[in-house]
């Protein structure tokens, strides 16, 4: 346990002397020296030579650095359409990436394919699989993080899928399973639109709608990991059936499929619009977005209506959580101002004025990459916190 304290202090500092590590972690210098010697011998650390400043009258201390090629983490972002796999070194820097169409087969077969693509990506990067300490798997659905099970992912047709069990047949190291919104929230707060903000709500609007809540930089999971499922809160007066089994949920009014349905209805009833069905004869959310960007008033109204519903949903989250920043992510955020401007206006209109004061509302900076970067970062965070839990327990 002392070893992980020492290692974490060195990772956090970048470059640091043995004496400073001892001060920071509260261990004696001989204890720190013995641990550092072992870590140097194992190739986890390296010595950089004397630092620039010396203690008064003493020698200049030798600086130590974590060797970022001594361990790796992997992020697997399973999307409704595409899956991305990123292999990253111990500092979280990407060293290899693969993307491919998400397999459309039974959950067990799909996860076996994803696991074998992951193993292949690790091998192609020239990384020794034994050095992979953790893999984060992010899925678009309800996830029980403790059990590492996907409880429900309607867009993939998954229900009660033991994700960790299935991928661990082919992958070593620890495996963690999270949902897309939670992972995207972590990524945006570490390296995206809300860097340095501790209390963040990320509203993820794509095929479905969800939210990731960070309280003091950590994901707030709730009892079964379902915290943030704002997409399945009911909008008063709405009655469209939802894939969760209820009616009138937020995502029946404001999601990719909801935009497509609204566009198709506008065409059907003969409104004056440039929205056109695509190659398969169906109106898509992309067709609605394209028409809006070309100035089509019907399409602009559809996006504004969806934005307003998302703004109301965000106002519920803001009043409950009181975050410093709301980040809007997912495919709907990429539509830009025709959806985001009405969203922010509606959010500010419906939230307590005191909670709106100083509140940042931002569009995702990482875009499509947020989920897989979150998977990498959560794998790093979780492998570190594992030691902390054991240490305290
Ligand atoms: Zn629902």
TrEMBL record:
It comes from Tenggerimyces flavus. Belongs to the ROK (NagC/XylR) family. InterPro entries: ATPase_NBD, ROK, WH-like_DNA-bd_sf, WH_DNA-bd_sf. This is ROK family protein. Pfam families: HTH_24, ROK.
């Amino acid at each position: 346990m002392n070893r992980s304290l020492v290692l974490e202090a060195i990772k956090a500092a970048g470059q640091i002397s043995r004496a400073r590590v001892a001060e920071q972690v509260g261990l004696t210098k001989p204890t720190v020296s013995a641990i550092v010697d072992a870590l140097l011998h194992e190739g986890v650390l390296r010595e950089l030579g004397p630092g620039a400043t010396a203690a008064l009258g003493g020698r200049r201390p030798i600086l130590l650095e974590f060797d970022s090629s001594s361990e790796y983490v992997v992020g697997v972002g399973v999307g409704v359409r595409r899956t991305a796999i990123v292999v990253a070194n111990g500092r979280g820097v990407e060293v290899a990436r693969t993307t491919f169409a998400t397999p459309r087969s039974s959950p067990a077969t799909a996860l076996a394919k994803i696991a074998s693509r992951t193993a292949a990506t690790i091998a192609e990067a020239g990384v020794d699989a034994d050095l992979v300490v953790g893999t984060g798997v992010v899925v678009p659905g309800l996830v029980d993080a403790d059990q590492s099970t996907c409880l429900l992912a309607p867009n993939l047709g998954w229900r009660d899928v033991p994700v960790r069990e299935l991928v661990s047949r082919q992958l070593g190291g620890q495996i963690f399973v999270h949902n897309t919104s939670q992972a995207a929230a972590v990524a945006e707060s570490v390296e995206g639109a809300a860097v340095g903000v501790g209390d963040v709500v990320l509203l993820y609007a794509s095929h479905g709608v969800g939210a990731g809540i960070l309280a003091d930089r950590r994901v707030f999971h709730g009892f079964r990991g379902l915290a943030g499922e704002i997409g399945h809160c009911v909008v008063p007066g709405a009655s469209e059936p939802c894939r969760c089994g209820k009616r009138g949920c937020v995502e029946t009014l404001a999601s990719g499929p909801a935009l497509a349905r609204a566009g198709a209805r506008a065409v059907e009833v003969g409104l004056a619009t440039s929205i056109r069905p695509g190659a398969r004869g169906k109106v898509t959310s992309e067709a609605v977005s394209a028409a809006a960007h070309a100035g089509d008033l019907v399409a602009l109204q559809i996006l504004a209506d969806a934005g307003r519903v998302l703004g109301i949903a965000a106002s519920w989250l803001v009043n409950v959580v009181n975050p410093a920043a709301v980040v809007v992510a997912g495919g709907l955020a990429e539509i830009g101002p025709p959806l985001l401007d009405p969203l922010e206006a509606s959010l500010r209109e419906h939230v307590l004025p005191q909670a709106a004061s100083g509140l940042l509302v931002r569009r995702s900076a990482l875009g499509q990459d947020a989920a897989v970067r979150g998977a990498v970062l959560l794998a790093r965070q979780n492998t570190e916190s594992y030691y902390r839990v054991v240490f305290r327990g």
